[in-house]
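Please predict the structure of the following assembly.
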Amino acid sequence: MKRKLGLIINPIAGMGGRVGLKGTDGPEALKRAIELGAQPWAEDRTREALRKLSHLRDEIELVTYPGSMGENAAISCGFSPIVIGELRGERTTAEDTKRAAREMRDLDVDLLLFAGGDGTARDICDAIGQDLVVLGIPAGVKVYSAVFAINPLYAGELAALYLKGRVSEIIEAEVLDIDEEAFRKGKLSIKLYGYLRIPVKREYISGAKSPTPISEKYNQEEIAIDIIEQMSDEYYYIIGPGTTTKTIMKKLNLDYNPLGVDIIHNRKLIGKDLNEKQILEIINNKKAKIIVTPIGGQGYVFGRGNQQISPTIIRYVGRTNIIIVATRRKLNSLHGRPLLVDTGDEELDEQLKGYYKIITGYHERIVYRISR
Amino acid sequence: MKGGKIKIRDFHEAKWDEPIIFELSRKGERGILVPEVEKEIEEAVGDGISVLPEHMIRKEYPALPEIAQVRVLRHFLRLSQETLGATINIDIGQGTCTMKYNPIINEILAKSPEVTEIHPLQDEDTVQGALEIIYKLDLFLREISGFSKFTFQPGGGSHAIFTIISIIEAYHRLNGEGEKRNEIITTLLSHPSNAAAPAVKGYKVINLYPEEDGRPDIEALKEAVSEHTAGFIVTNPEDTGIFNPRIKEFTDIVHEVGGICAYDQANANGIIGIVRAVDCGFDLGFFNLHKTFSSPHGCGGPAVGAVGVTERLKDFLPVPTVEFDGKKYYLNYDIPHSIGKVREFYGVFPVILRAYAWIRSLGAEGIKEVARVAVLNNNYVMRKILEEVKGASISFPKTRHRLEQVRYSFEKLKKDTGVTSEDVIRRMADFGFHLWTSHHPWIIPEPFTIEPTESYSKDDLDEYLTTLKKVVEEAYRDPEKVKNAPYNCPIHNIDHEPLEDPDKWAITWRAYLKKHKKWE
Ligand SMILES: Cc1ncc(COP(=O)(O)O)c(C=O)c1O
């Protein structure tokens, strides 16, 4: 049976960028972008990716939405796509993306390739959650989510490998929500919105001296076991969001909120999805440690997706009680750039600078720098 | 080829489609027919088997291939035509492995009956010559490193590292600090065994990450050390070819907290005769005789990781050491805190002999010349690659000063064309060249490492570079061509995926048979 590739383009994604707007979330911003002369470019980006798939034309079935949502791009790259659904208005909306994603889920596509930005990723996340394996072609102004390939070329290549059965590892990657209003004013306010399942190709070459790299999931488990081994009943553990940190909860068989901050003590859940105030109430007069992992591709340890762990809390807990965990893949993906903090409190950011022993595996540490 | 135009080889590797030797096995076929035992002999010595204890007698024959001599020979000769070994190609592309020319005369010496016909259990008096060679190699290596005593027992570099970590552990245990000192510090770009061996011994491993200049930061080391530090083990220069000139400050900091410092000099090619381990503050270290000293490095074959220690760690060495009392060479088992044996006997003797002969033939000045030429060759290649090979760059470009090898990156090539370093590797094989990547922990994108050593001439280097340049030009012109390589090799494209699946990979025939059923 032929493998099915779903394709969804958000045709208006990225239009704000070229005219100096920071995104096109909402009809007002889009209107403004068009007035400023923005041209659609998501389709160009998609074509770049599809070219890397064109050798599979006869081996896969490409399922897509009409016109600018995929049909045009597919045809121009020599595919004969199966076009489903219909467009309901003159301009496409988030609803179209969501409907398309749901219909592709119903068709059980093997991989859903989508072109857009963080907003598009959120729409896909809303529509189908983790039901399908997906991959983002970066075509938005903001592509902070970890579900996008580095560029369209890689997206096409990875998709081809996945469809050929050459990539077997699937990870949960973060979808981020950036407040566009604040972003336009030059402030970055990021929330962790959810997770999508993406394929990852581990880079290695046979014949190398090093053994086959282990999977992300296994790496997260060894980190969790290390943490659990060193847990002491003296401390309350504030567990930040992230799949690496939440593996600790899984290993302890505790309930947790994948996007929120939880607290455990004595290996029991004390509170789930807590806000700053609740955290402070729980740790008041107690000794506490914070366990965090960098969120998204930028390497932020504080201030991105875990704002609940506020400067007051960080100060109370103290620098020596901050435990940073990160998988090797995540740390390596920074290519040596330092980890970052943006707590909103400059003095604290300054104090947090310097080296930390990051837990990267069972009984394994990498000394790595936090900078601002 | 006289410095003129360099030819791109019209190469084609042999293809034999040769099965694995186990598949060639035919029941009852024999390489040697052992004569029947004659009656008189059997009467005198018995059947030779019933003297063995019952539980030691095999119930079944070992599952070895049954195969005639001529087919054995054919098999291995065919395989030898399907490899790109160090003596058949200009093997500078196997960076990190120090592939150099190992003089054949030393091989001949090692194959002489004086070497092959002695037994390690012979009486000392009858092997004085062999013991002398072991002892004198120890003296030579002491001079090169500044250490006080060497053992040749470890059978490879990783084994030497394991020995070193065992010595560090024994030292702290003797001082009552065995429990407390449970951390070993290394650098992320040190050889992976520097981290693996301590992990196997139960240590926590702390890796220092390279800064922008490719070197670890002193401040990072300060964050890493504590009263839990058992030791520090480091490769310097690392596989990037970058030397850390502040190494003495590093060892000082570790010593201040009571840690022991070990030097991985498996590959000493860039600094041999130039830098002494003790002057950098190291307490112990090792050389791979099978890389730097005239034995080939490969396949974990018979090798020697020669471990040297300073005076204060001498009492922890494996037994026996070889000593000289002024008249006679002897084996010394009286080492008070010895970690015991790490391998049988005294070291792989042919490797020891080749190292001894190599050092004797070069002399002190010759050895320095090895390092100088290796570094010169490397810097020539680096310069050519940076100037002439499009899409290639060096890792940590801030540091241009490299010793014996360089880790490069094809990141730009990949961005421009989609062609990866793995694709280039496969295409290079079409021209009879080996290029590989052994690039743990993969923090440099699309890596490749070239280590020219002292063995290759400028013409050799130019031939390699010309071919590399051609492949890269082809990548820009016709990326699919490179991506689908090789075309001239017996095996075309290997699917790596089964290597990640424990249900599928098999490193022994027995495991293969067991798992094979599941595949079908
Ligand atoms: C720096 C370094 N250390 C250790 C080793 C391990 O040596 P072996 O392969 O003999 O175990 C090597 C091998 O290439 C090496 O380059």
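Residues B 96-97, 156-158, 191, 193, 235, 264, 266-267, 288, 303, 305 surround pyridoxal-5'-phosphate (CB under 6 Å). The interface with chain A takes residues 96, 188, 192, 195, 199, 203-212, 217, 219-224, 415, 418, 422, 425, 436-443, 445, 494-497, 499-501 of chain B (CB under 8 Å).
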